[in-house]
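FW: tagging you since you asked about this chain on Friday. Here's the raw sequence from the shared folder, copied in full. Didn't touch anything.
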Amino acid sequence: MQLAKVVGNIVMSCAHESVEGNAMFLCQPIDENGNEVGEIVAAISPFGGGIGSKVVIAADGSEARKYVGNDYSPLRNCIVCVLDD
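HL: got it, structure written out here
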């Protein structure tokens, strides 16, 4: 699990069938002080959120595949909660 900040929306003209109709965001991993760590990642979100939201992402792929109900989905990152400010 990784703390992150949503920094952008993803709009896809074509996508794997498991991704269609789901919200996707660009997330910048951050540390507990809000400092950027690592590279921006794409994450699917069953919980909404938006640019500027602090979130927790799971990066092992299993949560994303569970959410879309497809064991063969190419998804890796999933927002598992949106944090209050």
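FW: The chain has a mean pLDDT of 86.
HL: agreed, and The two ends are 19 Å apart (CA to CA).
FW: great, closing this out.
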